[in-house]
Amino acid sequence: MSDCPRIFALGQWLRSVLVVAPSIALATTAFPAEPIKIGAYGSLTGKEATWGQSYERGVRLGLEDVNAAGGVLGRPLQILFEDNQSKPGESATAVRKLLSRDKVVAVLGEVSSGRSLEAAAICQQAKVPMISSGSAPKLTQVGTYIFRAHFIDPFQGTVMAQFARTKLNARRVALLTEATNAYSVGLAKFFAAEFTSGGGTIIVEQKYSSAERDFKAQLTAIKATRADALFVPGYYTEAGLIVAQARQLGLEVPILGGDGWSAPELLRLGGPALRNTYYCDNFSTESKLPETQRFISHFRARYAGFPDGVAADAYDTVLMLADAITRAGGPDPQKIRDALATTRNLAGVGGPLTINEQRDQLKPAYILGFKDGDYHLNEIIRP
Amino acid sequence: MTEFLQQLLNGLSLGAIYALIALGYTMVYGVLRFINFAHSDVFMVGAFIGYYLGKVIPENTVWGGIVILAGAMIGCALLGMLIERLVYRPLRGSPTLNVLITAIGVSLLLEYTGQLVFGAAPRTFPAIFPSTNFHVGELTLSSNQLFVIGVAVVLMVVLQFIVFRTKIGTAMRAVSLNPNAAQLVGVNINVVIAFTFALGSALAGAGGILYALNYPSIDPLMGVMPGLKAFVAAILGGIGNIPGAALGGLLLGTVETFIGGSQWSTYKDAIAFAILIIILLFRPAGLLGKFTVEKV
């Protein structure tokens, strides 16, 4: 059994010599070129399944568009998608399998920062580039092979704090954070830092833990403080219930959130209670950018319905990778890494994609507000 | 003061759901002397029956809501009887530990069959009843909260009536007191035990609907935490004692809510369980339970 991978690897090497080398020259002929294997993982099932499924749709659409345009260096991209069931610990297993058995040249995933962190350490050790859509700053600090297709929490925390102060005229804001979620705690911290340095006050910080359903106790306490606004830097599953319960208790102040709110499920959970709520995303279907509109029409032709921010991010991730492989001149993980690090002003679906020295993404933020049954674009903030 | 009253109301509506689930634990324990751990998953199935019925019955109507509630209760009653017939009846008379382990097995079977059939992703429960908010001064009462408390009270009164005023209730109490003697005087234990399971599971089904109505995100593992809390509530009130289960549920819900609204909100489960330990130290049989010395 132990010889199998070696024989397989040898076979692959022979094939790459015999098949791929001529196929680069004859890309347009009928010879099928050896595909470049890309690994991806995400929460296709479980608590945040909406994100994983949306992510997969975005990745697959990006792949189809790249392959329809002739692939990368004449070779098609092939995606191997693994499910981590929204569970801690599963991402590490999935990525180990992608790296050791499938020998992928790059790894894509995922939306949650916590689960991305598990995979990041493994990719860094294997020296295979990974592009995540998580927003926690420490993600890219894992090492030089970890990149990001999403903006970071300090940026969106700052954007939302400025929005609360200047556009909503809030002076006293309450926070409701998920105590067991690094993303939520981090985003609350960046929001609070910017808001207080601008002269505002954080009047109270209440906490909840994951999978909790009843937030009335915390919300009643928040209502008693007479805050002007409430910031809920959590995930959509809880945010939808929080907003609905807040309105049930008669708490009518504006409620703000981060990109964790970005999911169509939020509209079903919150319904009309979402009035006077705002959140920050990396994408809006109402953007007039030609790239955005082209992406939307491709997406709608391929799937039913409109894309969300997660699908847009996933699509951008594939674009970044295809561009990097092209500039690297081949599917070598080391060279792909170097090319990814020099991504500048690549036309992404929500605006230009640029990787900075920290391997973080400088994407614009879209502030969306709820009106007439759906979220609409309020303003675009560039970094 | 407003905040206090509002928290009290929040706590009572949460506690009412705990109480409904706790009643099922306590009734089965009262009659059979074992903890039916699958009960919290019957609660989950109740919510899913409501979810699927909600797709065919129009939303936001009182009659539609009542049909869904009744449908979930009947469905869960049948499920409870099925579990009793297939799993617990063959084990009757075997050591308590065997039955207890089997109950945990049934619970896991329901949870993971649920993941297979319904999928692991949370679903949004439809608004099956029309809902509005009432304002009394600064106090906000939502119709859903009042409805939960109201339905829970009605069901508990009905249960009390069945157990103490009807023939089958008398038979249940007889089986609880001494199954062999009950059989000797002509009580059909199989029927009584099946009825007990049906009744307890119907209450769990109602609890599932009421829970989903207030917290409209349901998934196959949704029963685990409320089930654990209700179990604690049943012990707190004195297991085997029906008013005790109701009292335990309301007490636990209220304590949890008051701590949840304070600065120690992240410790609320720890504090609620610490209170349980303290109460059991002073009253080992629970608040309303009678302490009996086991005869050797």
Question: What does this entry look like structurally?
Answer:
The complex is a heterodimer of chains A (383) and B (296). With 383 residues, chain A is an alpha/beta fold. Chain A is built from twelve helices and 14 strands. Chain A has helices at 4-25, 49-68, 90-100, 113-126, 153-167, 182-197, 216-224, 236-248, 265-270, 290-302, 309-328, 333-341, and strands at 36-42, 77-83, 107-108, 130-132, 146-148, 172-178, 201-208, 229-231, 255-257, 277-281, 346-348, 351-353, 365-371, 374-381. The longest helix of chain A has 22 residues, at 4-25. Chain A is globular, with a radius of gyration of 22 Å. Chain B has eleven helices and four strands. Chain B has a two-stranded antiparallel sheet. The chains are: A alpha/beta (383), B mainly alpha (296). The A-B interface holds A 45-47, 49-50, 85-86, 179, 206-209, 211, 213-214, 216-218, 220-221, 223-224, 237, 240-241, 244, 248-250, 265, 268-269, 271 and B 2-3, 6-7, 10-11, 14, 119-122, 124, 127, 133, 135, 140, 142, 144-145, 211, 214-217, 219, 225, 256-262, 265-266, 268.
